[in-house]
Amino acid sequence: MFQEATEKWMIKSFQITIDGLKDFHDNRRILKGGWDTFSTILENINNIHLVGNTNFEIAIRMNVDRDNVNNISEFIKFLTTVRYKLNKDNWLSEQTLIFV
């Protein structure tokens, strides 16, 4: 689906919403079977390089409210760590992954 979006439909920008760190996000975003959505999202982001086309941007957005406002700094710190790991293989540049 991602490959089709970037190649056939020429979509160049994607936004992925995460509600905070793993425990908080998974408590809010519960799949029907109770599966972990946070790890799935990170795995999907990490696997995007398999598509081959890197002419796109991914924006990570955090929904903030009174329940998680105090976790913004910790979440940004985590995203910085993830960005380092994603850039380790030089397939996802800082320009490709945007933190908004």
Folded structure, characterized:
- The chain has helices at residues 2-7, 22-28, 37-47, 72-87, and strands spanning 13-18, 57-62, 97-99.
- The chain is α/β, with parallel strands linked by helices.
Keywords:
100 residues, 40% helix, disordered C terminus, alpha/beta, 3-stranded parallel beta sheet
- Helicity range of the residues? 40-55%
Query: Which percent band covers the strand fraction?
Result: 15-25%
Name the average pLDDT: 76
Order of helices and strands: HEHHEHE
What gross morphology would you assign? globular
Uncertain regions spanning at least 5 consecutive residues: 87-100
**Number of DSSP-assigned strands:** 3
Could you give the topology of this structure?
Blueprint: H1 2-7, E1 13-18, H2 22-28, H3 37-47, E2 57-62, H4 72-87, E3 97-99
Parallel strand pairs: 1-2, 2-3
In short:
The protein is α/β, with parallel strands linked by helices. 40% of the residues lie in helices and 15% in strands. It is globular.
